[in-house]
């Protein structure tokens, strides 16, 4: 992971256009290729970002940009959509790289863990005639909560949350992009399952082709499936 604190401006072009004027910001270039632009405020969410699969190219600024004080351009292009993030670097205050290794993944709280277990035993909540491949299916960026198969041989990746928000949809999107590259799993579709799903998360999920399922935790606890537990 590379961490750069720099005075920069940022322009996003593609399905939407957005501009961040010149200011001091934190640029996070992660090992999965993604780039996140943070400020010293606005909670934990980046001001702008590019999710993988994407590519970062460092370019020499043209004469006009150089005369305005730009040292270099970072151009991040999404491999599938062609959306682009252009970061104009005016001053580098800090630049460091760190090897973080493989993250063990988020440890679920009691309710999320129970939801995942119950859903693994009651996959008909997601759809008819589905079969469970396994829970906590491992990937290079963390485990997928549930991996299912449909009768046609397609794969379904399920992300389980107690409260579903935009970050959960983004997390599932990254899993889907990675799993979809495996010919043994493709085609892969996604299901975002939670007790409560925020409206913004539903909109984003629909845009990403992800189906949302609202879980009745109390009802699921009252159903005895009789299916053997894998874990």
Automatic annotation (TrEMBL):
Pfam families: NucS_C, NucS_N
Main EC class the enzyme belongs to: hydrolase
CDD domains to which the protein is assigned, alphabetical: NucS-like
First-listed, main subcellular location of the protein, grouped into a coarse class: cytoplasm
Keywords from the UniProt entry: Cytoplasm, DNA-binding, Endonuclease, Hydrolase, Nuclease
Domain (Endonuclease NucS N-terminal PH-like) ranges: 2-104
Any GO MF annotation of the entry: single-stranded DNA endodeoxyribonuclease activity
Keyword flag Acetylation: no
Domain Endonuclease NucS C-terminal as annotated: residue spans: 111-230
Cellular compartments annotated: Cytoplasm
GO cellular component: cytoplasm
Enzyme Commission number: 3.1.-.-
Alphabetized PANTHER family for the sequence: ENDONUCLEASE NUCS
Task performed by this protein: Cleaves both 3' and 5' ssDNA extremities of branched DNA structures.
Family: Belongs to the NucS endonuclease family.
The protein's name in its UniProt record: Endonuclease NucS
Lineage per the UniProt record: Bacteria, Bacillati, Actinomycetota, Actinomycetes, Micrococcales
Encoding gene, per UniProt annotation: nucS
């Amino acid at each position: 992971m590379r961490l750069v604190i720099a005075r920069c401006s940022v322009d996003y072009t593609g399905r939407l256009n957005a501009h961040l004027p010149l200011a001091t910001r934190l640029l996070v270039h992660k090992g999965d290729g993604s780039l996140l632009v943070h400020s010293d405020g606005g909670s934990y969410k980046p001001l702008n970002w590019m999710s993988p699969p994407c590519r970062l190219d460092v370019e020499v600024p043209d004469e006009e940009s150089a005369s305005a004080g730009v040292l270099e351009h970072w151009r991040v292009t999404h491999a599938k959509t062609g959306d682009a993030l252009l970061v104009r670097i005016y001053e580098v205050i800090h630049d460091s790289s760190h090897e973080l290794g493989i993250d063990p993944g988020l440890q679920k709280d009691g309710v999320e863990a129970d939801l995942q277990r119950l859903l693994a035993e009651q996959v008909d909540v997601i759809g008819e005639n589905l079969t469970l491949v396994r829970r906590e299916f491992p990937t290079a960026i963390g485990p997928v909560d549930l991996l299912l198969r449909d009768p046609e041989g397609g794969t379904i990746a399920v992300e389980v949350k107690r409260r579903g928000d935009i970050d959960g949809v983004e997390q599932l999107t990254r899993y889907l992009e990675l799993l979809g590259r495996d010919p043994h799993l493709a085609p892969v579709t996604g299901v975002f399952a939670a007790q409560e799903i925020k409206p913004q998360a539903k909109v984003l999920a629909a845009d990403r082709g992800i189906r949302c399922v609202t879980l009745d935790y109390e009802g699921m606890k009252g159903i005895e499936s009789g299916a053997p537990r894998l874990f």
